[in-house]
């Protein structure tokens, strides 16, 4: 059976015969169908029937439907209603705006709004640098998308991207107490996106670019960094790169290898792959080969796009050619940020001894982590139901907390390297293990350590 997940969790309201033994039969049927019962509540008990709410998790949406059908087949049970708990959580959105000051009296209003607010506006006019202290700007981030590359769902547009951007804003608040707003733009034109962000920038202390397709995202980030005096961070690139470097640092400690000497194969030459490669090289990696759907990128190939030409020029010193299976031979590390099921687990034994496999495609990885674990010394994925989840939440809250605290105007490669080291060092020598190379996103020290590494201040 595939692993179940809370993201596919449902609650079934059942009308059953007035026999509490039926409840056990329902639980048994769900388990036999591969589901996991997480709660059973008898909400009403009458002489003629029971009303029972059963909550269970499934492996995917179709499995949820199978569980409902299985329960409906239990004698004496009627499925009255089915609620998808993930959709219930999203009803009305996941974030809101709350006032930090009381607004109970005329006196309150006269200070928070007119006429008192006019004095504060003039103070900012006379001393523009005070805008960070006297407004929310000093603790605010715009989460900007055009909806062109949302999660693993593709180009689904700004409206459909909104739940993801809301979630990102909620994570900013939960992990770093930063006020973030989802900005979903109704354009995928590079010039219009750049101009839109430039126009809203005065109200924010930082810009988080999110789920914008490559190669457009590269130019958007470059131009905004040049034109704005606040930091611009593309989380799909730099957040992913930070966490991958942190995890790889600890994975290599587990197998007693060094970044400078290992051979690394990166599958995926998009935004995430490019940023990962760039940061790995900055950290000291010497032998990195990037593979896309057409095979290894090599500087000898004149047919590459401009972005891939630059990537090939910085990598593949041995000018390796061929498919993923071919270039994987004798490699020490595989990092996948590409597509599901492109790596056969049986290729892993052809890698160097004690191989490291990071299969990070979401929601379905390049290779099943359980299968990869039969051959690899260390396995990581983007999934929460396996050990070693590579999750950007480990990076971006602390990165922006540090940037805002320092009043930074830019994000540097050195900052990214320090952030990766801070995450890696959160795992102590006593804790380090092939199944524990990266801390939990709920680790109380991660955000503080990353923020301190970024700002240069003691946490």
UniProtKB/TrEMBL annotation:
One Pfam assignment: Malic_M
Keyword line: Metal-binding, Oxidoreductase
Domain ACT positions: 11-85
PROSITE patterns recorded: ACT
InterPro entries assigned to the protein according to its UniProt record, in alphabetical order: ACT_dom (IPR002912), Aminoacid_DH-like_N_sf (IPR046346), Malate_Decarboxylase (IPR051674), Malic_N_dom (IPR012301), Malic_N_dom_sf (IPR037062), Malic_NAD-bd (IPR012302), Malic_NAD-bd_bact_type (IPR045213), Malic_OxRdtase (IPR001891)
Family membership noted in the UniProt record: Belongs to the malic enzymes family.
The protein, known as: NAD-dependent malic enzyme
Species the sequence originates in: Nocardioides baculatus
